[in-house]
Amino acid sequence: MKFIHVNNISYNYSQKQVLKKVTLTIDQGKVLSLLGPNGSGKTTLLKMIMGFYRPSTGQVILEGRSISDMTPRELARRIAYVPQVHRLAFSYRVMDVILMGRVSRKPFFFRYSSKDRAIAARALEQLSIVHLKDRPYTEISGGERQLTLIARAMAQGADTFVLDEPVNGLDYGNQIRLLKQIADLAEQGYTFIQTSHFPEHAIWISDRVVMLQDGQIIANGSTQDVINGPNLYRLYKTPIGIVEAKNGMRVCVPRLMRDRHHSSEKQEKNNAQYQAA
Ligand SMILES: Nc1ncnc2c1ncn2[C@@H]1O[C@H](COP(=O)(O)OP(=O)(O)OP(=O)(O)O)[C@@H](O)[C@H]1O
Questions:
Q1: In 3D, which of 248, 249, 231 has the Cα closest to residue 240?
Q2: Residue 94 sits in which domain range?
Q3: In 3-state terms, what secondary structure has residue 130?
Q4: Which residue's CA is the closest to the ligand 1 atom numbered 18?
């Protein structure tokens, strides 16, 4: 089911055009990964989808309605932004941070209700972090913080999560566990849009991949179709092969590293092959 439709969006920061006629759709209950080199416009595109910035041309449509016709509160009830792991200025308990997700559902003066607390408790359970609920947010690890921020987004009641490099700064184990958590939540019907600098992470959990270069989409389709050597070369300017493990899982092999291990291979030949593609 087509859920979010990004329709022909362009955006300029003063004179500089950073998004050029970007069109894509996001299906409900799926994971979409945005890949692209530094400065290609990934974060700017996320900000458009969140309604933080208004596009110069084009529009973002959520279930048939332009998000420019929605109030920030209305939008926050559907789409939640999960920032990169950050530090809060004050040492709130994890439970309090998650309860903050309920604010968009409250009048100006409010107290948290028992329903709010039950929703926050459920989010703690869904993210398997019940044991952290009374810990100060400032004293938990980066991975635990990222899970807390996703729990806060869930407590907001949103069904779509926009994540900017969610594994940034996490150790390898926590990266894998966080991505597994995202894949599991997508199975339950939640929708995810993430930016990533790791094509393999896109292979692991994405249904769809969009490649951005200089603010333009250069590839958009199923993960299987989009993540291939020629597209990765176009994006990152370094040759990367894709090999299939025995269990069918696809793995990225940077040729520059492979050539260190097989010095008899002709590196120029590989480069020529990818440059020609
Ligand atoms: N507030 C701003 N004012 C002016 N230019 C900006 C601003 N934010 C981003 N840019 C520029 O817009 C372009 C796209 O930036 P953006 O942050 O969207 O890229 P990105 O693909 O997310 O990059 P990265 O992978 O490095 O996080 C870059 O050239 C950047 O310098």
A1: 231
A2: 88-158
A3: helix
A4: 41
